[in-house]
Q: What sequence folds into this?
């Protein structure tokens, strides 16, 4: 928090019962507890909009609770809890409520590994068998599995549910040695073999692989600390994460007494009924097993955004952070999750652009869904946690919030970039893109075989009207130029994308991307140029 920022705490308690009869579920207030620590008008606008949007989504999706922390320019400016941490007791979600992480825990395992690589304890491309107390062999042959393979999910291991159990797991070494000795797992009612590819041949998200890295941390760190103790001592505590812990399993006897009462209750929601989830332990807990507030976990993202430094602590060297946030793909066979690019542990999008972003989500079966996301060049990052897992179909409350904030950040970037350019010049570029898209809509998207003639184009440009309630960029001559240029391009996806990259397009791809965000056309309609601009 900066010296001139302010702290405001709002408490609104609204029980589920005792409301006026005329209030429907759609209009009932959702309890909100929040702390706002900024006076910046742009930050406050984003906070106000996100607060309203979260409540709208929670009503439409019937979500019990949401917990969020937002950072701008390296400072946490907003923490808030919406709804209920425990609906049966009507205990409100607050900024101090802890969530169960799921796969977000992988980012701590990756950080711990890279710390040991920096110290020379581990070699990034060393075979994992150099550090394990048992031998791991890919049954499909090929070279040995390396640490780098596990960090990028390219070991050849199949996926799994992090060895989910109703009973307390055995020590990590015993659980993993047993898992590697098995031929595979039964997932989704079908048998899945342990190995599905040779090392380095394809991307395959693997909880077992990341848990193996956790065991390597435990076996190799010079202090001989357990995985949990190492992460807490060398990552969480120095970052000032006072409301966080990474226990070997999440039970009352393993969690600090000051944290246990603050854990939210997870719900498997079915048809707008909130059913408490059964207690699930993870035998492969380094793949996803910490507890924290969103504000605490956000500190790890802020360290990554600040060349490895936060709270006066150098978590990682700047060159290590750069490597972790660099795509490790070897080609189209190595995407990350949901179309993102694979870094070292982190999932990346739009590398090399001003909208570069890194993220990692997590879910704890079947009660929590979470996401952490950062745009380092835009100075924005957030962590959002939801204490539900909708069944039988995930409704995407967390994804909707993620997309809302992402849209805001993209719009801010477009506004800032446009403001830095003379308005007349920017109006020409945006209007030129309008002309390109106008032709694509008719000739490529719906396949009209003939082209607009010059007389018709001139009439269209002349009669275009700018909404009097808006202040947008418009240049009729630029629109005509865009139409004429696109009229010379074959109306196919391939030809349009070749044109966009050829230098014949009169604006750069970066300028086209900024203009695209200003226009916000429907991505489903403009599949050629739009697909290029929206490509990760």
A:
């Amino acid at each position: 928090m900066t010296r001139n920022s302010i702290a405001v705490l709002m408490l609104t308690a609204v029980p589920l019962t005792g409301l006026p009869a005329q209030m429907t579920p759609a209009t009932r207030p959702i309890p909100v507890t929040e702390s706002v620590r900024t006076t910046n008008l742009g930050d406050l606008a984003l906070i106000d909009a996100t607060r309203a949007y979260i409540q709208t989504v929670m009503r439409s999706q019937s979500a019990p609770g949401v917990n969020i922390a937002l950072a701008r320019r390296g400072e946490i400016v907003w923490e808030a809890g919406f709804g209920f941490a425990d609906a049966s007791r009507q205990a409100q979600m607050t900024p101090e409520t802890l969530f169960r992480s799921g796969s977000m825990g992988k980012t701590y395992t990756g950080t711990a590994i890279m710390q040991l690589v920096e110290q020379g304890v581990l070699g990034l491309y060393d075979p994992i068998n150099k550090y394990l107390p048992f031998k791991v062999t890919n049954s499909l042959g090929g070279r040995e599995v390396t640490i780098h393979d596990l960090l990028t999910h390219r070991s050849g291991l199949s996926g799994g549910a992090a060895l989910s159990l109703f009973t307390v797991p055995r020590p990590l070494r015993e659980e993993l040695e047993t898992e590697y000795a098995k031929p595979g797992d039964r997932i989704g009612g079908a048998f899945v073999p342990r190995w599905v590819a040779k090392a380095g041949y394809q991307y395959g998200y693997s909880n077992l692989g990341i848990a193996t890295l956790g065991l390597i941390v435990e076996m190799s760190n010079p202090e001989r600390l357990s995985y949990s103790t190492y992460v807490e001592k060398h990552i969480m505590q120095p970052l000032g994460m006072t409301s966080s812990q990474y226990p070997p399993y999440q039970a009352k006897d393993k969690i600090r007494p000051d944290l246990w009462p603050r854990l939210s209750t997870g719900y498997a929601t079915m048809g707008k009924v909130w059913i408490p989830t059964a207690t699930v332990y993870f035998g492969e807990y380094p793949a996803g097993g910490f507890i924290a507030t969103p504000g605490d976990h956000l500190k790890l993202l802020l360290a990554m955004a600040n060349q490895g430094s936060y709270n006066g602590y150098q978590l990682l060297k700047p060159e290590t952070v750069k490597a972790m946030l660099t795509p490790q793909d070897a080609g189209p066979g190595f995407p990350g999750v949901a179309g993102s690019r694979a870094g070292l542990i982190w999932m990346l999008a739009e590398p090399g652009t001003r909208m570069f972003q890194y993220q990692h989500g997590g879910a704890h079966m079947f009660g929590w869904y979470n996401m952490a996301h950062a745009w380092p060049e835009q100075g924005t990052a957030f962590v959002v946690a939801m204490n539900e897992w909708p069944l039988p179909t995930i409704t995407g409350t967390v994804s909707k919030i993620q997309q809302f904030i992402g849209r805001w950040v993209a719009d801010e970037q477009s506004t800032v970039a446009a403001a830095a350019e003379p308005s007349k010049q920017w109006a020409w570029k945006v209007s030129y893109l309008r002309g390109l898209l106008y032709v694509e809509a008719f000739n490529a998207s719906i396949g009209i075989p003939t082209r607009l003639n010059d007389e018709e184009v001139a009439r269209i440009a002349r009669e275009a009207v700018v909404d009097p309630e808006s202040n947008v960029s418009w240049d009729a001559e630029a629109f005509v130029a865009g139409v004429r240029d696109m009229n010379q391009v074959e109306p196919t996806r391939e030809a349009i994308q070749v044109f966009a990259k050829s230098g014949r397009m009169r604006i750069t791809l970066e300028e086209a991307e900024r203009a695209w965000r200003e226009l916000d056309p429907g991505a489903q309609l403009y599949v050629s140029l739009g697909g290029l601009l929206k490509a990760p």
Notes: The first strand starts at residue 8 and ends at 12.
